[in-house]
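Entry 14. Structure prediction run on the chain below.
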Amino acid sequence: MSTLTEAREAARQVTDALLRVAYRGAYSLAMAYWFVRRPSIEGVFVGVWHGRRVLLLQNSYKRQFSMPGGGPHAGESHVQTGLRELREEVGLTLDAAQLRPTYDVVDWDEFKRDHVFFVEVEVEAEPQVTIDRREVVWAAFMDVDAALQLPLSSPVRAYLTEAARRRAPPTLHFIQPGHALYPEELELRFRVLREPLGFPRSAVTFPFEAESLHLVAQQGTQVVGCVLFHPEDALKGRLFQMAVHPSLQGRGLGARLVVALEQELRRKGFTHVHLHARAAVVPFYERLGYEVYGEPFTEVNVPHRHMRKTLGSSMFPGGRSQEA
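Output returned:
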Protein backbone atom coordinates (compact mmCIF):
# COMPACT_ATOMS: atom_id res chain seq x y z
CA MET A 1 0.00 0.00 0.00
CA SER A 2 1.43 3.42 -1.01
CA THR A 3 2.02 6.25 1.47
CA LEU A 4 -0.76 8.30 -0.14
CA THR A 5 -3.22 5.40 0.09
CA GLU A 6 -2.29 4.80 3.71
CA ALA A 7 -2.84 8.48 4.50
CA ARG A 8 -6.26 8.46 2.85
CA GLU A 9 -7.26 5.32 4.75
CA ALA A 10 -6.13 6.85 8.05
CA ALA A 11 -8.09 10.02 7.27
CA ARG A 12 -11.19 7.97 6.46
CA GLN A 13 -10.94 6.05 9.72
CA VAL A 14 -10.61 9.31 11.68
CA THR A 15 -13.62 10.77 9.86
CA ASP A 16 -15.65 7.62 10.54
CA ALA A 17 -14.75 7.73 14.23
CA LEU A 18 -15.69 11.40 14.53
CA LEU A 19 -19.03 10.80 12.83
CA ARG A 20 -19.78 7.88 15.15
CA VAL A 21 -19.18 10.26 18.08
CA ALA A 22 -21.54 12.75 16.42
CA TYR A 23 -24.24 10.08 16.02
CA ARG A 24 -23.95 9.15 19.71
CA GLY A 25 -24.23 12.78 20.68
CA ALA A 26 -27.28 13.32 18.50
CA TYR A 27 -28.91 10.21 19.95
CA SER A 28 -28.30 11.45 23.52
CA LEU A 29 -29.92 14.79 22.66
CA ALA A 30 -32.89 12.97 21.11
CA MET A 31 -33.28 10.88 24.28
CA ALA A 32 -33.31 14.06 26.38
CA TYR A 33 -35.99 15.57 24.12
CA TRP A 34 -38.11 12.42 24.31
CA PHE A 35 -37.77 12.38 28.10
CA VAL A 36 -39.20 15.90 28.32
CA ARG A 37 -41.85 15.77 25.58
CA ARG A 38 -42.89 12.08 25.57
CA PRO A 39 -43.84 12.21 21.87
CA SER A 40 -45.84 9.75 19.77
CA ILE A 41 -43.96 8.69 16.65
CA GLU A 42 -43.93 5.98 13.98
CA GLY A 43 -41.14 3.77 12.73
CA VAL A 44 -40.68 1.14 10.03
CA PHE A 45 -38.35 -1.88 10.10
CA VAL A 46 -37.63 -4.27 7.25
CA GLY A 47 -37.26 -8.02 7.77
CA VAL A 48 -34.99 -9.33 5.00
CA TRP A 49 -35.27 -13.12 5.14
CA HIS A 50 -33.50 -16.04 3.54
CA GLY A 51 -35.28 -19.07 4.96
CA ARG A 52 -34.93 -18.73 8.72
CA ARG A 53 -31.99 -16.32 8.46
CA VAL A 54 -32.73 -12.63 8.93
CA LEU A 55 -30.64 -9.52 8.27
CA LEU A 56 -29.61 -7.76 11.49
CA LEU A 57 -27.53 -4.64 11.99
CA GLN A 58 -26.03 -2.60 14.80
CA ASN A 59 -26.01 1.18 14.95
CA SER A 60 -22.96 2.98 16.29
CA TYR A 61 -25.04 4.77 18.94
CA LYS A 62 -26.98 1.78 20.37
CA ARG A 63 -25.94 -1.30 22.31
CA GLN A 64 -28.91 -3.32 21.06
CA PHE A 65 -29.00 -5.04 17.70
CA SER A 66 -31.69 -3.98 15.28
CA MET A 67 -32.89 -4.24 11.67
CA PRO A 68 -32.83 -1.86 8.72
CA GLY A 69 -35.38 0.86 9.41
CA GLY A 70 -36.21 4.32 10.63
CA GLY A 71 -38.83 7.04 10.68
CA PRO A 72 -40.97 7.83 7.62
CA HIS A 73 -40.51 10.96 5.57
CA ALA A 74 -43.56 13.09 4.82
CA GLY A 75 -45.90 11.34 2.40
CA GLU A 76 -44.08 7.99 2.49
CA SER A 77 -45.91 4.70 2.84
CA HIS A 78 -44.47 2.07 5.14
CA VAL A 79 -43.14 0.14 2.14
CA GLN A 80 -41.53 3.29 0.68
CA THR A 81 -39.86 4.02 4.02
CA GLY A 82 -38.57 0.46 4.16
CA LEU A 83 -37.15 0.65 0.64
CA ARG A 84 -35.36 3.93 1.41
CA GLU A 85 -33.90 2.64 4.67
CA LEU A 86 -32.62 -0.50 2.94
CA ARG A 87 -30.78 1.65 0.40
CA GLU A 88 -29.39 4.06 2.98
CA GLU A 89 -28.35 1.60 5.68
CA VAL A 90 -27.28 -1.59 3.91
CA GLY A 91 -27.08 -0.66 0.23
CA LEU A 92 -29.93 -2.91 -0.94
CA THR A 93 -32.22 -1.80 -3.77
CA LEU A 94 -35.49 -3.70 -4.03
CA ASP A 95 -38.83 -3.27 -5.77
CA ALA A 96 -41.90 -2.18 -3.80
CA ALA A 97 -43.79 -5.26 -4.99
CA GLN A 98 -41.32 -7.47 -3.12
CA LEU A 99 -42.15 -6.03 0.32
CA ARG A 100 -45.28 -6.94 2.26
CA PRO A 101 -46.58 -5.51 5.56
CA THR A 102 -46.62 -8.23 8.21
CA TYR A 103 -46.63 -6.93 11.79
CA ASP A 104 -46.95 -3.85 13.99
CA VAL A 105 -46.53 -3.16 17.68
CA VAL A 106 -46.76 -0.16 20.01
CA ASP A 107 -43.76 0.32 22.28
CA TRP A 108 -43.02 2.78 25.11
CA ASP A 109 -39.25 2.39 25.18
CA GLU A 110 -36.92 5.44 25.22
CA PHE A 111 -39.53 7.77 26.76
CA LYS A 112 -41.76 7.85 23.67
CA ARG A 113 -44.82 6.11 22.27
CA ASP A 114 -43.49 4.37 19.18
CA HIS A 115 -45.87 2.64 16.76
CA VAL A 116 -43.52 0.34 14.88
CA PHE A 117 -44.51 -1.28 11.57
CA PHE A 118 -42.66 -4.22 10.00
CA VAL A 119 -42.48 -5.11 6.33
CA GLU A 120 -40.86 -8.27 4.97
CA VAL A 121 -39.08 -9.50 1.90
CA GLU A 122 -37.93 -13.04 1.09
CA VAL A 123 -34.69 -13.28 -0.92
CA GLU A 124 -33.53 -16.31 -2.90
CA ALA A 125 -29.91 -15.80 -1.81
CA GLU A 126 -28.29 -13.68 0.87
CA PRO A 127 -27.30 -10.42 -0.84
CA GLN A 128 -24.06 -8.55 -0.31
CA VAL A 129 -24.68 -5.66 2.10
CA THR A 130 -22.79 -2.38 2.26
CA ILE A 131 -22.55 -0.30 5.45
CA ASP A 132 -21.04 3.13 6.07
CA ARG A 133 -19.32 2.19 9.38
CA ARG A 134 -20.58 5.48 10.72
CA GLU A 135 -24.29 5.14 11.49
CA VAL A 136 -24.24 1.37 10.89
CA VAL A 137 -21.16 -0.50 12.10
CA TRP A 138 -22.17 -4.13 11.53
CA ALA A 139 -24.71 -6.05 9.42
CA ALA A 140 -25.11 -9.75 8.66
CA PHE A 141 -27.64 -12.54 8.19
CA MET A 142 -28.23 -14.71 11.24
CA ASP A 143 -30.47 -17.63 12.14
CA VAL A 144 -33.55 -16.24 13.85
CA ASP A 145 -33.11 -18.47 16.91
CA ALA A 146 -29.56 -17.16 17.37
CA ALA A 147 -30.78 -13.61 16.80
CA LEU A 148 -33.26 -13.95 19.66
CA GLN A 149 -30.33 -14.62 22.02
CA LEU A 150 -28.89 -11.16 21.32
CA PRO A 151 -29.79 -7.89 23.06
CA LEU A 152 -32.65 -6.52 20.94
CA SER A 153 -35.07 -3.63 21.21
CA SER A 154 -38.47 -4.81 22.44
CA PRO A 155 -40.29 -4.18 19.09
CA VAL A 156 -37.64 -6.12 17.15
CA ARG A 157 -37.74 -8.94 19.69
CA ALA A 158 -41.54 -9.12 19.47
CA TYR A 159 -41.43 -9.24 15.68
CA LEU A 160 -38.68 -11.87 15.50
CA THR A 161 -40.49 -14.04 18.06
CA GLU A 162 -43.64 -13.94 15.94
CA ALA A 163 -41.67 -14.47 12.72
CA ALA A 164 -39.82 -17.45 14.22
CA ARG A 165 -43.16 -19.04 15.06
CA ARG A 166 -44.41 -18.53 11.50
CA ARG A 167 -41.17 -19.88 10.05
CA ALA A 168 -40.85 -22.91 12.31
CA PRO A 169 -40.11 -26.10 10.33
CA PRO A 170 -43.40 -27.73 9.30
CA THR A 171 -44.52 -30.77 11.25
CA LEU A 172 -45.55 -33.94 9.37
CA HIS A 173 -48.79 -35.84 10.01
CA PHE A 174 -50.52 -38.81 8.43
CA ILE A 175 -54.22 -38.03 8.01
CA GLN A 176 -57.27 -39.43 6.26
CA PRO A 177 -60.27 -37.79 4.56
CA GLY A 178 -62.45 -36.35 7.29
CA HIS A 179 -59.49 -35.05 9.28
CA ALA A 180 -59.55 -31.32 10.12
CA LEU A 181 -56.52 -30.77 7.85
CA TYR A 182 -57.97 -32.59 4.85
CA PRO A 183 -59.72 -29.51 3.35
CA GLU A 184 -56.40 -27.63 3.64
CA GLU A 185 -54.66 -30.51 1.87
CA LEU A 186 -57.20 -30.39 -0.97
CA GLU A 187 -56.79 -26.63 -1.27
CA LEU A 188 -53.01 -26.97 -1.56
CA ARG A 189 -53.31 -29.69 -4.16
CA PHE A 190 -55.69 -27.54 -6.20
CA ARG A 191 -53.58 -24.37 -5.97
CA VAL A 192 -50.29 -26.09 -6.82
CA LEU A 193 -51.21 -29.00 -9.10
CA ARG A 194 -54.49 -28.24 -10.84
CA GLU A 195 -55.33 -24.53 -10.91
CA PRO A 196 -52.15 -23.55 -12.86
CA LEU A 197 -53.20 -26.04 -15.58
CA GLY A 198 -56.75 -24.64 -15.80
CA PHE A 199 -58.48 -27.61 -14.16
CA PRO A 200 -61.52 -27.18 -11.85
CA ARG A 201 -61.54 -28.09 -8.17
CA SER A 202 -63.39 -31.30 -8.99
CA ALA A 203 -60.22 -32.56 -10.70
CA VAL A 204 -58.33 -32.64 -7.38
CA THR A 205 -59.85 -35.73 -5.78
CA PHE A 206 -59.42 -39.37 -6.80
CA PRO A 207 -61.77 -42.36 -6.33
CA PHE A 208 -59.21 -44.00 -4.03
CA GLU A 209 -58.68 -41.09 -1.60
CA ALA A 210 -60.07 -43.05 1.37
CA GLU A 211 -57.75 -46.05 0.98
CA SER A 212 -54.66 -43.94 0.30
CA LEU A 213 -52.07 -42.71 2.79
CA HIS A 214 -52.07 -38.91 3.14
CA LEU A 215 -48.93 -37.29 4.55
CA VAL A 216 -49.21 -33.53 5.12
CA ALA A 217 -46.76 -30.88 6.30
CA GLN A 218 -48.36 -28.40 8.68
CA GLN A 219 -47.02 -24.94 9.49
CA GLY A 220 -49.18 -23.13 12.00
CA THR A 221 -52.74 -23.84 10.91
CA GLN A 222 -51.81 -24.19 7.24
CA VAL A 223 -51.00 -27.27 5.19
CA VAL A 224 -47.87 -26.34 3.22
CA GLY A 225 -46.99 -29.71 1.73
CA CYS A 226 -48.45 -33.13 1.01
CA VAL A 227 -47.79 -36.44 -0.69
CA LEU A 228 -50.15 -39.42 -1.12
CA PHE A 229 -49.64 -43.14 -1.62
CA HIS A 230 -52.21 -45.56 -3.07
CA PRO A 231 -51.58 -49.23 -2.17
CA GLU A 232 -52.10 -51.53 -5.16
CA ASP A 233 -51.39 -54.73 -3.26
CA ALA A 234 -49.56 -55.74 -0.08
CA LEU A 235 -46.12 -54.90 -1.51
CA LYS A 236 -46.41 -52.08 -4.01
CA GLY A 237 -48.26 -48.88 -4.74
CA ARG A 238 -48.16 -45.48 -6.31
CA LEU A 239 -46.91 -42.18 -4.93
CA PHE A 240 -49.03 -39.30 -6.22
CA GLN A 241 -50.24 -35.71 -5.60
CA MET A 242 -46.93 -34.41 -4.31
CA ALA A 243 -47.31 -30.66 -3.63
CA VAL A 244 -45.38 -28.00 -1.73
CA HIS A 245 -46.52 -24.43 -1.13
CA PRO A 246 -44.70 -22.07 -3.56
CA SER A 247 -43.15 -20.09 -0.68
CA LEU A 248 -41.37 -23.24 0.57
CA GLN A 249 -40.34 -24.84 -2.71
CA GLY A 250 -36.64 -25.48 -3.10
CA ARG A 251 -36.00 -25.70 0.65
CA GLY A 252 -36.03 -29.45 1.16
CA LEU A 253 -39.62 -29.93 2.29
CA GLY A 254 -40.52 -32.08 -0.71
CA ALA A 255 -37.62 -34.45 -0.06
CA ARG A 256 -38.53 -34.56 3.62
CA LEU A 257 -42.09 -35.61 2.73
CA VAL A 258 -40.96 -38.38 0.37
CA VAL A 259 -38.41 -39.76 2.83
CA ALA A 260 -40.96 -39.78 5.66
CA LEU A 261 -43.52 -41.53 3.45
CA GLU A 262 -40.97 -44.18 2.44
CA GLN A 263 -40.12 -44.83 6.09
CA GLU A 264 -43.79 -45.47 6.84
CA LEU A 265 -44.14 -47.70 3.77
CA ARG A 266 -41.18 -49.83 4.87
CA ARG A 267 -42.71 -50.11 8.33
CA LYS A 268 -45.93 -51.35 6.73
CA GLY A 269 -44.06 -53.91 4.59
CA PHE A 270 -44.18 -52.23 1.18
CA THR A 271 -41.18 -52.89 -1.05
CA HIS A 272 -41.90 -51.01 -4.29
CA VAL A 273 -43.06 -47.50 -5.14
CA HIS A 274 -43.81 -46.06 -8.55
CA LEU A 275 -45.07 -42.68 -9.70
CA HIS A 276 -45.88 -40.47 -12.66
CA ALA A 277 -43.38 -37.59 -12.57
CA ARG A 278 -43.81 -34.41 -14.55
CA ALA A 279 -40.77 -34.10 -16.79
CA ALA A 280 -39.60 -30.97 -14.96
CA VAL A 281 -39.29 -32.77 -11.61
CA VAL A 282 -37.62 -35.98 -12.78
CA PRO A 283 -34.22 -34.78 -11.42
CA PHE A 284 -35.81 -34.24 -7.99
CA TYR A 285 -36.95 -37.85 -7.78
CA GLU A 286 -33.68 -39.14 -9.24
CA ARG A 287 -31.84 -37.50 -6.34
CA LEU A 288 -34.08 -39.49 -4.02
CA GLY A 289 -33.16 -42.79 -5.67
CA TYR A 290 -35.98 -43.18 -8.22
CA GLU A 291 -35.26 -44.34 -11.76
CA VAL A 292 -37.00 -43.61 -15.04
CA TYR A 293 -38.48 -46.52 -16.98
CA GLY A 294 -40.77 -46.92 -19.98
CA GLU A 295 -41.64 -44.34 -22.59
CA PRO A 296 -42.54 -40.67 -22.05
CA PHE A 297 -46.27 -39.92 -21.96
CA THR A 298 -48.63 -36.99 -21.50
CA GLU A 299 -50.95 -36.64 -18.53
CA VAL A 300 -53.07 -33.63 -17.48
CA ASN A 301 -51.66 -32.00 -20.66
CA VAL A 302 -48.10 -32.16 -19.23
CA PRO A 303 -45.18 -34.42 -20.34
CA HIS A 304 -44.56 -37.18 -17.76
CA ARG A 305 -42.18 -40.05 -17.11
CA HIS A 306 -42.71 -43.32 -15.25
CA MET A 307 -40.40 -43.64 -12.25
CA ARG A 308 -39.89 -46.34 -9.63
CA LYS A 309 -37.90 -47.23 -6.56
CA THR A 310 -37.29 -50.49 -4.74
CA LEU A 311 -37.64 -50.21 -0.98
CA GLY A 312 -37.01 -53.93 -0.49
CA SER A 313 -34.96 -56.49 -2.41
CA SER A 314 -37.27 -57.88 -5.12
CA MET A 315 -37.63 -56.52 -8.68
CA PHE A 316 -40.30 -53.98 -9.52
CA PRO A 317 -43.13 -55.33 -11.68
CA GLY A 318 -43.33 -53.20 -14.85
CA GLY A 319 -46.32 -51.78 -16.60
CA ARG A 320 -48.36 -48.61 -16.48
CA SER A 321 -50.63 -47.66 -13.61
CA GLN A 322 -53.65 -45.49 -13.12
CA GLU A 323 -53.90 -41.91 -14.39
CA ALA A 324 -52.28 -39.12 -12.32
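The chain has two domains: 3-166, 171-310.
Filed with the rest of this week's runs.
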